Automatic annotation (TrEMBL):
It comes from the Archaea. The keyword Secreted does not apply. It comes from Halarchaeum nitratireducens. This is SWIM-type domain-containing protein. Residues 1-12 have a biased composition (Polar residues). Residues 1-31 are annotated as: Disordered. Residues 55-87 form the SWIM-type domain. Keywords: Metal-binding, Zinc, Zinc-finger. Pfam families: SWIM. InterPro entries: Znf_SWIM (IPR007527).
Amino acid sequence: MVSTKPTSTTHSRLAPLSPGGPTDSRAARARSEPMAVVALGGARYDVVVRGGTAYTVDLDVGTCDCPDHTYRGRRCKHLRRVAIDVTAGRVPAPGERDAACADCGAPCFVAAAAPDPVYCEDCTLDPGDLVRDRERGDVLAVVETMSARARDVAVGDHTVATHPTNDGYDPDDVVVEACYPLRDPTPQRLRERGVRSYAFPRGRLARLPR
Ligand SMILES: [Zn+2]
Ligand SMILES: [Zn+2]
């Protein structure tokens, strides 16, 4: 059988990509040059370069007020650097804000509208996580972390926040529903089994190692 595969590929050599071309050098400089990115809120960031000049990048509209972008319309190294830092988790993404985890204190990024207290990914309690009740010392299993806050969840005549056993805990804390350990606790299984679960302010529960 005769091969129809071309024996010459000269066309691929006519316009080699230049590693030193303008696009590549912007990408390289975005990574290699010292720049400090400061989140301003929304989708806006200041990029401070050597010498102290700051350029403002808006990621939503893809603009930067530096000459390279303003006059040449280029996707400048500042725009690229902000995108790199957002992807790497060094600065909050648009719509997020800086926060500190209310449990371990680690810095984390949360939705800009999320009220304090907030919890990092590690300290957000998932179904099945074991926790220790700081008041009674009991070990319980998490059923779910609710989005509702202690001041808004009713328990009998009280709310989780005003319940006497929760005195001293943050009324704005998220509410965690927990039960005495059961394999695979989910709201549905608990209802089926008639297992009683309890509502706690998150701060009352100490996470046990997974
Ligand atoms: Zn720029
Ligand atoms: Zn944490």
